[in-house]
Amino acid sequence: MNKPSNVNLLVAKAGESLEVAQQLVDTSHYGFSVARSYYAMFYVAEAALLLKDLQLATHSGVIGSFAREFVKTGVFPPEMSMSLQKGFDLRAHGDYSLVPVSREDAENILGEAKAFVGAVSEYLHQEGYELE
């Protein structure tokens, strides 16, 4: 495993997901936007977990491990774990529910995703990763 390369790839995918999530909000595709917002958080959570040599196969594994490794240890505040879980729940709603996702929900989770990605990216930088 090339850890620096994989971390950079995941952070780049997160940035691209945020861009697409914004475009989808701007074009009123709220259900698809919440999915991209969630995946932005998911990708950087995976990148952070790589620092601890953790590669997980499930969404619940990533969400739980992020909480255990970074929130419970005080690296990140509890709100970040809540944002990741909220993003997961909204993604499922957007993908599977017949009730549309609201613009407000899409905009809110996009804001949380931007903050999440920014905080994790800063942490990765502090840990010595030169992010591209």
Explain this structure.
The chain has one domain: Four Helix Bundle (Hemerythrin (Met), subunit A) (Up-down Bundle), CATH 1.20.120. It is 77% helix and 0% strand. With 132 residues, it is mainly alpha-helical.
SSE map:
Elements: H1 3-26, H2 30-50, H3 59-71, H4 78-96, H5 103-126
Total number of domains: 1
C-alpha termini separation = 19 Å
Q: How many beta-strand elements? A: 0
Radius of gyration: 14 Å
Overall SS class: mainly alpha
Largest sheet: none
Overall mean pLDDT: 95
- Give the helix proportion (percent range): over 70%
CATH architecture: Up-down Bundle
The poorly predicted ranges are: none
Number of helices: 5
Quote the CATH topology: Four Helix Bundle (Hemerythrin (Met), subunit A)
Beta-strand residue percentage: under 5%
What is the class in the CATH system? Mainly Alpha
The CATH superfamily bears the name: Nucleotidyltransferases  domain 2
Helices and strands, in order, run as HHHHH
Shape: globular
Which features would summarize this protein structure in a list?
single chain; 132 residues; mainly alpha; Four Helix Bundle (Hemerythrin (Met), subunit A); 0% strand; globular
What is shown here, in short?
The protein is mainly α. The chain has helices at 3-26, 30-50, 59-71, 78-96, 103-126.
